[in-house]
Amino acid sequence: MGMLVAMQLRLFTSTQWLYDETGSELQLGLLGAVQFLQMPVVVYGGLLADTINRKKLMFFTQSVSFISMLLLTLAAWNDVLAPWMIFAVTGVTGIVNMLGNSARPAMLPRVIPRSHTTNGVTFQTASFQVGQIAAPLLFGILFTQFGVGTTFFVGTIFAGISMIAPAMIKASGAPDPDTVSQSKVAAIVEGASFVKRHPILPGLYLLDIGVTVVSFYRMLFPLFASGLYGMGAEGTALLGSANAFGGVGGSMLVFFTEKIRHKGRIVLGATMVYAVGLIAFGLTPIFWVGLVIVALLGATDSVGMTMRQAIVQLTTPDRLIGRASSAHSFAAMSANNIGQMEVAFVSAAIGAGATMVLGGFVGIAVVAVIWVVVPGVRRYEYTDAPSGGAVDEPENNDANQDLRKIK
């Protein structure tokens, strides 16, 4: 959670300071473009998570975040902070974080039994959401009362905590010997082939991309706080906190889906409600109503995200989890970065509210297309009960015992 709070403080502070300094929606969109530069390293990050010690990889990548936050803090305190520094740190930390992002989910099967994977992913997601509640609240207090330098400094403290946290994990981070013996190219091809042939994962990734590209709003809260409600940093903080509160609620809701066999339909249903919520968010001019809708968006997004991550864990063998997770990260981060650019640029042209309404209608269409074109998603079933159904077992996959037959 420390890593997430540090990252969120950096992003909220960077976007708010940049928007305050420039007053430009296009600058926020360009910040998304800089983050898009990290995409080529995502696949390599998944490979690293399967071929080197996962705990050491996490320590290295989080060390870079700590140093970057420290540099921003010093620049702010010495009144030399400039937009190019925000862009540079965003680009560097984004690239390095992508190298370590797959290591965290890849460690999960080593610390909890597979039968508790969904609950484990839910707890992991909930802890992240708690961080997303704390971060905007901290941002709102620190940024408005003490300024940009102090806000970056507190983020640096959290980054330092996250840097040493991997050393406290007792489970081994060592890679599978068979994967280490492969060439890098062969290992990448193996991972890509596994994802491509998978009956569910490509559909889940396309669903995430198709909806998020036209609706990404989290890092554009300064724009929505100003464009929809005429507010500044206070509005940004409240919108961010409401979204995170909803995310925690959505994560907890996943616990009550344990007996529901159709996990794929949960993802599709949550995404459909999310799309409808986007339309409502774009149409409401009342701030407190907007907070409720943003909380709903956080809840439905959290349900979908948690179930997607659980399905990746449940249907992928340990030796391939890093590469499968990197494909998930690639889809999610590509969609986030493209979405940040698209939403910022379209908002500059037609307004923030109209952009959300448009994104909602496109999201509804995407869900409908995935339902029809990728039937594996809606047919996927899973239950922890031994009587959960027959097992579909193509090839030699030690996770197929958890992939219930797609009827």
Describe this entry's structure for a reader.
The chain has 407 residues and is mainly α. It is globular and about 55 Å long. The two termini are 38 Å apart.
Comma- or semicolon-separated keywords:
407 residues; Growth Hormone, Chain: A; 76% helix; disordered C terminus
CATH architecture: Up-down Bundle
Beta content: under 5%
Helix content: over 70%
CATH superfamily: MFS general substrate transporter like domains
| Sheet of most strands | none
Here the CATH topology equals: Growth Hormone, Chain: A
- Gross morphology: globular
> Which structural category do the helix and sheet elements fall into?
mainly alpha
Number of helices: 18
Q: In angstroms, what is the radius of gyration?
A: 21 Å
Series of secondary-structure elements, N-terminal to C-terminal:
HHHHHHHHHHHHHHHHHH
How are the secondary structure elements laid out?
Blueprint: H1 2-22, H2 25-36, H3 42-51, H4 54-77, H5 83-100, H6 103-111, H7 117-145, H8 148-164, H9 177-181, H10 184-197, H11 201-212, H12 221-229, H13 233-254, H14 263-283, H15 287-314, H16 321-350, H17 352-373, H18 375-379
